[in-house]
Amino acid sequence: MASTLWYVLPTIGALQVLLAVSLTASVNGGTLLVVPHDGSHWLSMRLVVEELGRRGHQVVVVVPEISLVFGGSEGYTLKTYQVPFTKEHFDGTLETVALDAFLEHPPLQQILSLRRLMANVTGIMVTACEHLLHYQELMAYLHAMDFDAILMDPFYPCGTIVADHLSLPTVYFLRTILGGMDETASQSPSPFSYVPKAMSANPDRMTFFQRIKNLMVALSDYWLCYTLYSPFERLASTFLQREVTYKELFSRASIWLVRYDFVFEFPRPVMPNMVFIGGINCATGKPLPQVSFSGSPSIHCLTHSCEVQQATLASHWAYL
């Protein structure tokens, strides 16, 4: 009975969250708090946030004053908080990580390099999160808003600390979490012998030695997670005034909106409160222009250069 309830309750919570944030503009909209992650993560989430605002919901987005791409919009209210680092330091740290991501490394060196670089980013994110949590004026405002739910990118768990503090149902909007924490936090089975780990370069049908390699990568994930998330664990325990592990922080989601398509991933078990929304940030394509010329059927061209090329071909055909 207990195991049955464990599967049912997250689904019930997910339905409540969806009802709270997906009301149409014809009725009273809900109030939604958004704690995003910077960079391309926000570019994907922003489309959803703006659409919720257009549908009549009151959306409040909380971001640091120094960022890569955060900005205001008519679809939501932007609230910022001060951070103790400069724009140059922030951009330089992220640029180093981005450049290293395109370098070819042996698997072990890649893991060590990722750990070192992400530890630097984690230091910045923990500092920013600490300033958010201790910004009393902003936290009082968030309390007074009485939000229905929080939408967040859990790449780093600052938003989960805020959600726990405000006792809000949580919706995750994500592609993945480093170190396989999405599998651990959602309690999705991920047997090492069958599900290839990220950065292992293993196929879904592994040999014995590839499975050993997969196990070694999985063990390194625990090390990576501790490096990245243990500072948030200490911050959360201090702020919430109780012992909290980073696994508990990541595990509080009512629903997971996962930005990939199941058919493009290796087969693996997932929980019923995980919803695949791959392609949600893809813009609707415009109809291709139709070009006709003598002696050939109508064709569709992608660009003006294509039209010129087809016109040139038509002249050659006419000459022949």
UniProtKB/TrEMBL annotation:
It is found in: Membrane. Belongs to the UDP-glycosyltransferase family. One of its GO terms (cellular component) is membrane. Its EC number is 2.4.1.17. The lineage of its organism: Eukaryota, Metazoa, Chordata, Craniata, Vertebrata. Keywords: Glycoprotein, Glycosyltransferase, Membrane, Signal, Transferase, Transmembrane, Transmembrane helix. Pfam families: UDPGT. It is a single-pass membrane protein. This is glucuronosyltransferase. One of its GO terms (molecular function) is glucuronosyltransferase activity. Coiled coil: none annotated. Its main location: membrane. InterPro entries: UDP-glycosyltransferase, UDP_glucos_trans.
